[in-house]
Amino acid sequence: MTVALPGGRERAWHEAYHAAALCIAGMVPKCARTDFPHDGAAGSVEIDWGEGGFRDPAAAKAVLVAVVIGGMTEGRDGWEWENWPIDRRKMAEGAGGDAVKARELIEHFEMDQVDWCHVLWQASRLGRRQDFRRLAVLIANELERVEVLHAQDLRDLMAQGREAAAA
Questions:
Q1: Residue 148, domain member (yes or no)
Q2: Into how many domains does the chain fold?
Q3: pLDDT tens readout for residues 57-80
Q4: Cα 103 versus chain centre, distance
Q5: 3-class SS at 109?
Q6: 3/53 Cα distance (integer angstroms)
Q7: Which of the chain's ends, N or C, has fewer CB atoms near its CB within 10 Å?
Q8: Which of 6-37 are b and which e, b meaning 16 or more Cβ less than 10 Å from the residue's Cβ?
Q9: Can you give the residue range of the structural domain that contains 13?
Q10: 132 falls within a domain
Q11: Sheet holding 148-150, edge to edge
Q12: Which of 54-63, 106-115, 122-131 has the lowest mean pLDDT?
């Protein structure tokens, strides 16, 4: 079986959705990249967990929303309340890693199906927000151009998005 690698635009949008969701949640990532950073990954977003680290349930839920919304760029297959516990085999091909990460967070924080439904609802709601979409477009366009964005680059794009909204 031959597997085609995702193109630059696909990688940019996928990682941009992860990064924009984290930025909107106040958790600006350390780095967002689409340069095949390690085996099996076409891109990645390095999370800055902040003071409480990964032990903070509120931060974990924000990260989980970011994982889900990025995974949804590959298609909505598997990102449904019925997919419980999360089964990566039910996900679109490019969302398998996101499914694994989502399941790890859910298991670590002992979330239940109700929590899962709430996360799916939050991700869907976030995807309809204009400020989120504006920021995701800015990040995706920049990731297509340079492939690696650091926290300050993301903050600059956030400011650019706020300025555009105010104009």
A1: yes
A2: 1
A3: 888 899 999 999 999 998 888 899
A4: 14
A5: coil
A6: 36
A7: N
A8: bebebbbbbbbbbbbbbbbbebbbebbbbeee
A9: 8-34+53-166
A10: yes
A11: 44-46, 31-33, 148-150
A12: 54-63
